[in-house]
Amino acid sequence: MYTAPFTYHRAQSLSEALQMLQQNPEAKLLAGGHSLIPAMKLRLATPPALIDISRVPELRGIRREGNTLVIGAATTYYEIESSELVRQSIPALPEAIEQIGDPMVRNKGTIGGSLAHADPAADLPAVVLVLDAKLKIQGPGGARLVDVDSFFQGMFTTAVGPGEILTEVHVPLPQGVARMAYEKFPHPASRYAVVGVAVAIGPNGVRAALTGAGDHAVRLSKLEQALSGQPLNAQSIEAACQNLVDAGELMGDHNFSAEYRAHLVDVLAKRALLRLV
Amino acid sequence: MADVTKMVGKAIKRREDPKLIQGRGTFIDDIKLPGMLHAAVVRSPYAHAKIKRIDVSRALAHPGVVAVFTGEDMMDINPMPAAWQAGGVKSNAVTPRALAVGKVTHVGDGVALVVAEDRYTARDAVELVEVEYEPLPAVVDARKATEPGAPLIHEAAPNNICMEWECGSKEKADAAIASAEVVVKEEIINQRLIPTPMETRGCVARYDAATGEFTLWMTSQAPHVHRLLLTAFVFGIPETKLRCIAPNVGGGFGQKIFCYADYAFTMWAARRLGRPVKYVEERSENYKASTHGRDHVTEVEIAGTRDGKVTGLRVKTWANLGGYFSTIAGGIPTTLYGRIITGVYKIPAAHVKVWGVYTNTAMVDAYRGAGRPEASYLIERMMDRFAAEIGMDPAEVRRRNFIQPQDFPYDNGLGMLPYDSGNYEPALNKALQMVGYENFRKEQAEARKQGRYLGLGISSYVEICGVAPSAWIGAVGQGWGAGLFESANVRVHLTGKVVVTTGSLPHGQGVETTFAQIVADELGVPYEDVTIEWGDTLAAPFGYGTYGSRSLAVGGTAVHKSVQKIKEKAKIIAAHMLEAAPEDMVFENGKAYVKGSPDKAKTLAEIALQASLAYSLPPGVEPFLDETTYYDPPNCTFPFGTHIAIVEVDAETGKVELRRYVAVDDVGNIINPLIVEGQLHGGIAQGVAQALYEHGYYDEDGELRSSNLLEYAVPTAAMLPRYELDHTVTPSPVNPMGVKGAGEAGTIASAQAVMNAVIDALSPFGIKHLQMPATPERVWRAIQNSRQMRQAAD
Amino acid sequence: MAEKVRISVTVNGVQHTSEVEPRQLLVHYLRETLGLTGTHIGCDTSQCGACVVHVDGQAVKSCTVFAVQVDGSSLTTIEGLAKDGHYHPVQEGFWEKHGLQCGFCTPGMIMAAVDLLKKNPNPSEGEIRHALEGNLCRCTGYQNIVLAIQYAAAKLRGEPVTGAVADD
């Protein structure tokens, strides 16, 4: 309940935030704090300094740039969930976000915070993987746009390097409405994903991703390949959603074994895909 | 004279609520005293270990830390007491000390106490206390703990057996089973639960060196009992040197009945340091170090005839007590379990054998229902197993074995007091009707054809409420070592306002409201003129507190009786005022008058004024209207009813959806239906939670894996159904109001309704039993196993 | 100990300026520094919702926010919800429908419900239950909480409401 002591720095701009990070290399960034603060309260995280980026204007807001939806990293789940622009362009995104945590978590938690934290049981990593997003990362030497497929690198590990800040999430918008579905099996206590499967139909066919079961979110390439060139119908889906992952690659605990989670991946993938048919 | 509006029986909203909905209640952590220090505890990360060395020097040097103590420092006070020992039953009870000395017996066992100027500093310094442990092998399963070669936890308890207990007739049960047409055997596990009142436990201790008196604010369901135990047994000081105060208590469910180490170490530290000390558990500490509930391993056999008569029941239960013996731990898996094991059925031969066993886990004691949910789950699960075995409808099997209305008072032959009153079949029939039983069976058959798995589960229950009669519960052999009467004082002040002090300790039950309803009606005074006070040993007469659904049946009756005494005295004084004979007086609707002359009446306020001014009272009559009752009922009360759950199992994921929940309860006469329904709702929720979600899970090394609310699944609103309630009313003959009690009935009835439904849903797979909780993976695995076995058979 | 930071907040319409340790949780700031003990602590893992308050009109778990983060913000706690001696309709609903027993979860539950009704004035029962996923109650089994929120929703929409009646 009581965190270890730390020093607090509030950034007013992105450049100030980067500067603070330069001066406090051990510091953690604080946006919504809903991944970080719970870990600090259990003293699983004891950063000596926090840099509060929640008020940095460059990190806030949702806008459309051509065929791309740009979401500032410090935009809260609630802001995304209630955004008319998002509801019109990717209606399945608010639906997925509504499954995260609870309303208070969504009022404070931010998209960038979730993605940069890369909790293996978080929902959004699977969603951005199937949306084929790009992540804008700003460092002292400038900005780079990272493909989502190379963003999640391990448990709590991403492409964001020391001294860098995830600033924006870029989601390509197809013609019309993006078709995506997210199926989640929530942990009954924590409400994190025991298994979450996201699927989307893109210009290059089906994209599918898995969160919750492994040490980080991954594409379900086996499923994507099985459906490649196939018409999407109940039969093809049923046939494709078999033994998608090997239980040996998954995490397990006393409530949800790896074997059971592997089975859930098949079931949830099927159910998500059926929603798109 | 027209009747004034009666309050009893009306669904009036609670008088407790205005301050609580405005955030103006006073809970334990809201108490702040000048100069108050904050305590934090260094807790064992090991389930079983010797303490080799404790170095407090770094913690002591930390700025803001006032003191650090270990168990060795507190050897001048005794270990916690155990009621069971006082009961004269043979046991090997080992109770916890204020802090562990020499060894720890469960994860979370307290090892050192840090006292600091603020709570953050105290917590920081906990990290600085260095403890060297020598880990020992651990055991967490009660049955395994009794097996040869299991690690020994206490020298005093060979094979980790703290106590052995039995009831019923072994010879008769053995004979019934040996000669039966049908015998069904099962192993039933009633898993460990963590009570989880939303407010954790805590206390604030103050010591006045000038008078040698302590004041202890505490999260208590029974402050008088806590005062007695802490003074007479732990500190060895006169009882009068401690004042216990329970402010608003944020839920208890049994967990706040017991005498815990933290009450003792906080008092001890306050005396040593000369400053008030506060200790409030964090939730993870509450999970690791406060009591848990249930945790039985049971081998059971039920015997009967092919035409549905149950003829015998034989039960062997290993009850997990945890790493030490908690205050009334002995009484739960024995008196409140074994003696009601045959439930609502006439079973001619039954025998229950219980071993109370130490393991390397948190202590186990009463949790909502306390023994009765375990008993009810066992018999109701076995009635379904028996029904399935002989191919009979489970409702019909129940009907054929019910105790009949003419059998009351009913002696079940297990050493229980006679069941007071009951009529079980109407409750079952009403529940079946509400749920549309015949239609459901058709729907179920249709659904199965489409590969959907619906199930219906019946639970007909009886339970023990108003646990009290001291001559029974306190007798040698029952093991409680205490009476369980309840007290009430009623005073009518000279302004006519009525003040009631009760030994009950409401913490959500709405006792202030119901007691005021009773008093208003009985005295004929406005409800608003009645005040109910409780919670302070300085103000209230000695009472045993609130648990065992006893507030109304025992505490409420004490109030009722005091009111009758007030009325009698009022009549005597009014007779004097009216120059009449007391025996000619009538007291009705707040007025006393001579029979036949209601127009010349004296109001209670007038009489109270006369009694208080006292210049003209009849000879020998004391001033003031002030009456106290210590009510010790002749019997317990036995609420009953039938609950029915309907579930759908998702065979692909194993997830159980609770689609409907119907409950028909008979809690005797009802004082406030709104409150009774609230009690039933909450009770049902906790039983449903046991069936589907909750498990206080220790791994084999004794690590509590469900150590906080991230892991332990207390259900949210979305995980629970809408409850459909109805009642039958069979008044209790035990008390003048005919009430029984409603606090635990919902919990006692519900887990098996849900589990019977789950297993009914899974019957096409040949599944006969599943252990709780019916988690998705457990259900899925059962289906997988069944499919594999069938494939192998083909 | 890390250096203290000066913050300025408006709580229930009253402005406060305080020096706080950066690690002080908002819930401790409210309870211990300002003495507003209606906001409760029921867990240590951000699950139970007993600590919900409003920060700039949004419901947040005050156990998962540092006091320094709300510098310059306007807060409402349970103590500030009633206006001019009148209960907020959600408070009224909880009283009328027996939506509380021990009352410990109640302040957070009420604050979460107020946030819900601001965003969704006419929620279905399912939406109410979903919106309460961050608030645990151990006493009521939630049914009367749902009824309380439905009562408040109707009242806020200007529809007639009925008070305390048992449900059968």
Please tell me about this protein's structure.
- The complex is a heterotrimer of chains A (277), B (794) and C (168).
- Chain A is α+β, with helices and mostly antiparallel strands and 277 residues long.
- Chain A folds into three domains: 7-52, Uridine Diphospho-n-acetylenolpyruvylglucosamine Reductase, domain 2, CATH 3.30.43.10; 58-172, Uridine Diphospho-n-acetylenolpyruvylglucosamine Reductase, domain 3 (2-Layer Sandwich); 179-276, 2-Layer Sandwich (Enolase-like, domain 1), CATH 3.30.390.
- Helix content of chain A is 31%, strand content 26%.
- In chain A, strand 2 (28-30), helix 2 and strand 3 (49-52) form a beta-alpha-beta unit.
- In chain A, helix 9 (221-227) packs antiparallel against helix 10.
- Chain B has three domains: 17-22 and 486-631, Aldehyde oxidase/xanthine dehydrogenase, molybdopterin binding domain (Aldehyde Oxidoreductase, domain 4, 2-Layer Sandwich), CATH 3.30.365.10; 31-136 and 199-250 and 256-289, Alpha-Beta Complex (Aldehyde Oxidoreductase, domain 3), CATH 3.90.1170; 293-468 and 635-770, Aldehyde oxidase/xanthine dehydrogenase, molybdopterin binding domain (Aldehyde Oxidoreductase, domain 4, 2-Layer Sandwich), CATH 3.30.365.10.
- Helices cover 29% and strands 23% of the residues of chain B.
- Chain B has 20 helices and 26 strands.
- In chain B, the strands form six sheets. Chain B has a seven-stranded mixed β-sheet, with helices on both faces. Chain B has a five-stranded mixed β-sheet with strand order 7-15-14-13-8. In chain B, strands 16-24-25-26 form a four-stranded mixed β-sheet, with helices on both faces.
- The model of chain B has no long low-confidence stretch (mean pLDDT 95).
- With 168 residues, chain C is of the alpha+beta class.
- Chain C has five helices and five strands.
- Chain C has helices spanning 26-33, 89-96, 106-119, 125-131, 143-156; strands at residues 5-11, 14-20, 52-55, 58-61, 74-76.
- In chain C, strands 2-1-5-3-4 form a five-stranded mixed β-sheet, with helices on both faces.
- The interface between A and B is medium-sized, with 19 and 26 residues.
